[in-house]
Amino acid sequence: MASHRRPKKPSRTRVTVLTTAAAAAVAISAQAANAAPGEKPSKDEVKSKVDALYEQAEQATEKYNGAKEKQEKLQKEISTIQDNVARGQQDLNKLRDALGSMAAGQYRSGGIDPSLQLFLSSHPDEYLDKAATLSQVSGQQADSLKKIQDKQRRLAQQRAEATGKLRDLAATRTELGRQKQQVQGKLAEARQLLNTLTAQEKQQLAQAEQTRATRGTERVDLGNITPGSGHAGAAFAAAQSKIGSPYQYAHNGPSTFDCSGLTSWAYAQANITIPRQSEAQANAGQRIYSQSQLQIGDLVFFYGDLHHVGLYAGKGMVLHAPHTGAVVRYESMSNMPYQFGVRI
After folding, report:
1. What's the pTM?
2. Residue 139: what pLDDT?
3. Active site residue ranges
């Protein structure tokens, strides 16, 4: 007699695994149906992403410029302090030698003063604290001892100041390296995106960039620009001479520039020193918020964090170093979010 066994029910675990696998298979099939194989972003999408990366790179560049400027300032300050300490130590040695000669003279004439013995011991800096009164030594000796102690105190303060600045310098160098790495990372990412384009698409983007530069120059009408007199006029004329020079991050001339590198270089040609970084340049003069009050050669700042700066060129135009892949050129200020101008 045949047995009629009921089929064994699959375990709950097995049901769960099968259900999950089936759901995953459905999801993968749906994705495969919606995504065309080998699909890549369009030329316009690549340009949009690259422009965003260039802006992020410029933000990091200005932070890099600020850290580099701080590093150079600290290095000069540390060098000055170290020179002062070296000269101070020489002066201190001379004072000690003079006091030693004085003590030797006293010894030859009948014995060294006990107070001088105390000072010339292994802890001379404790002398004035231990000596009850300067009347214990002659006026000349007391004057020498006081000078030595004052010199020792100043040297101790200068050494402590140098130590603090050296720590600050080490931290600044670390920040400098971090910002440089960030800039290079953004630019590398942009290059990777551009490499997804065909040669024809790359040529089209280059032509569009050239057209943008040409259009800016035509709108400004170089023949009608009067740079003006004074430092602003001289700075603007210097910047004009660099039209067509390539953008290069962290460069301030004479042949390649980033945005604040161009403005700081231009004003240097007018014998005016302004900070290297755009955010610091924003505090280098009188702020002008109305575009109608701007004059040719004024600094003009863009974006909320002030990471971009150029020179006002008149007619609502700016002369600037735009970004990686571009050259120093004229451009409409309406292409960027204007914040204010600064008259040096």
Report:
1. 0.67
2. 63
3. 259, 308, 320
